[in-house]
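Task: sequence design from structure.
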């Protein structure tokens, strides 16, 4: 982050929480002092001395990682707390920061939310810890995510969500439907499925900000431009038009189930074949295996359909990092845990527990790629996921107040799912509302 941006933010009194409902900002660094410096010897000394660190995270594989870390460093205690998933944790974290009390030493933060915390100086820049030397260990999308549009490094990538097409092979085979290689073919497959079985849908979509931005990313759209407090928002490029034109056909022809993801109805549809595909992140297999057990063997994985025939473009859908909040304590010890979990021995532990890695060593290993998934009929699905990860463009940016923007998605773009409003009109409404909010918070926002 540039020094002039830091001064501007403090001068205008930007609301730190933005969408999170807080009224005060944390930040302990001196004006223009640059990133803190913590050497390897400092980290070793902290491990030798020991102590307790509190980690706020909802990722289940961290339980074993914490236990292994404690075993390797007997003087260290890791207090792992599930303060809620994404937005619930962000609210709790912001409340702690505002009160300057109870702030964890380590916090899980999703990539889309990192810019908001980084710009308002609520996360420690890890450049001074030597995190920049770890860049080549991570795939491009997640590494770009922890840079949060600025010059610093505000966390280490924990997992990633390169997208793929999960499809019900049993349903496709029954109706003679080929796996679509392009989104145009996807629309045709949707029509064929609906004709063969009026109760079936190619997928579900009731309006989801994360899904929409992921498809825009893959289509080559770059709606957000961020330079400190200068922000641009524009949904009129070629990629955005490709997305809206294609997805509008699916909505107009009622080819997608108006079902909210993660609902009971959604799980039922995935199980009984009435929802036939999901374009989603590579972290999905464990959720299918646990939530749609009766459909084991029916599903397979394929590359994401392309906007242009012969393309290979992908995008991230989900994923998060472990960060060090500025007001947390035990920084050397906290960083030691984060590096262990996300760039050290903890990565293999998490992968064995079902997490999808952000690290190239695991993504490129034969053991990882050749893993057979019984749920997918023995398919080596990681080969598809790893290829997708390598094809994610690393020039995507989120808004520094993306959490707020996502919170108003259903009030804007969401109208296209329940009225005569088109997706293009919905995106324009989302743009205007996001511009107005950003300007109100002290950003300079333009189209």
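Answer:
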């Amino acid at each position: 982050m540039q020094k002039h941006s830091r001064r501007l933010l403090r001068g205008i009194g930007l609301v730190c929480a933005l969408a999170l409902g807080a009224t005060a900002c944390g930040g302990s660094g001196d004006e223009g002092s640059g990133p803190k410096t913590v050497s390897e010897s400092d980290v070793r000394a902290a491990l030798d001395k020991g102590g307790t660190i509190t980690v706020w995270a909802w990722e289940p594989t961290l339980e074993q990682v914490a236990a292994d870390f404690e075993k390797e460093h007997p003087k260290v205690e890791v207090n792992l707390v599930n303060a809620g998933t994404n937005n619930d944790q962000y609210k709790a974290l912001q409340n702690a920061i505002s009160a300057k009390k109870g702030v964890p030493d380590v916090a899980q933060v999703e990539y889309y939310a990192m810019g908001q915390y980084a710009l308002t100086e609520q996360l420690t820049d890890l450049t001074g810890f030597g995190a920049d030397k770890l860049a080549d260990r991570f795939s491009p999308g997640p590494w770009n995510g922890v840079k949060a549009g600025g010059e610093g490094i505000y966390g280490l990538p924990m997992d990633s969500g390169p997208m793929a097409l999960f499809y019900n092979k049993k349903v496709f085979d029954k109706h003679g439907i080929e796996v679509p290689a392009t989104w145009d073919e996807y629309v045709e497959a949707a029509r064929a499925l609906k004709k063969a079985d009026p109760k079936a849908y190619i997928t579900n979509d009731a309006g989801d900000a994360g899904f929409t931005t992921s498809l825009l990313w893959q289509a080559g759209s770059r709606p957000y431009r961020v330079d400190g407090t200068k922000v641009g928002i524009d949904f009129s490029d070629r990629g955005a038009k490709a997305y809206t034109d294609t997805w509008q056909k699916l909505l107009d022809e009622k080819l997608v189930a108006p079902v909210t993801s993660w609902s009971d109805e959604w799980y039922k549809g995935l199980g009984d074949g009435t929802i036939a595909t999901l374009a989603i992140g590579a972290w999905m297999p464990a959720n299918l295996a646990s939530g749609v057990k009766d459909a084991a063997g029916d599903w397979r994985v394929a590359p994401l359909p392309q906007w242009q025939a012969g393309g290979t473009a992908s995008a991230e859908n989900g994923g998060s990092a472990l960060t060090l909040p500025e007001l947390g304590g035990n920084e050397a010890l906290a960083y030691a845990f984060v590096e262990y979990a996300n760039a050290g021995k903890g990565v293999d532990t998490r992968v064995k527990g079902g997490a999808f890695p952000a690290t190239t060593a695991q993504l490129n290993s034969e053991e990882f790629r050749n893993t057979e998934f019984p749920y997918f009929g023995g398919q080596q699905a990681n080969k598809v996921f790893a290829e997708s990860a390598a094809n994610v463009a690393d020039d995507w940016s989120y808004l520094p107040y993306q959490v707020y923007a996502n919170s108003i998605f259903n009030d804007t773009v969401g109208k296209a799912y329940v009225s005569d409003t088109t997706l293009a009109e919905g995106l324009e409404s989302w743009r205007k509302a996001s511009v107005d909010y950003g300007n109100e918070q002290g950003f300079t926002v333009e189209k």
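Residues 423-440 form the longest helix (18 residues).
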